[in-house]
Amino acid sequence: xxxxxxxxxxxxxxxxxxxxxxxxxxxxxxxxxxxxxxxxxxxxxxxxxxxxxxxxxxxxxxxxxxxxxxxxxxxxxxxxxx
Length: 82
Fold this sequence. Notes:
Blueprint: E1 3-7, H1 12-23, E2 29-32, H2 39-45, E3 54-57, E4 60-63, H3 65-73, H4 75-81
Parallel strand pairs: 1-2
Antiparallel strand pairs: 1-3, 3-4
Helix pairs in contact: 3-4
């Protein structure tokens, strides 16, 4: 499973998303806007996404912190059980 968390510096919800993944022992890659990817490239790759954090699992956009929390409670739990 490949999880990428797009973040930006000084983003409290980015910190919360990364902390939640760490708490659940989920391995992920962080990509920082302006450092690892340009804002333009991010917007081309994920049109319509206006904020970070933005979580992508196996190429599928999950969403921000709230959607990540929901995904960890349902889809990820089912994945581990299955």
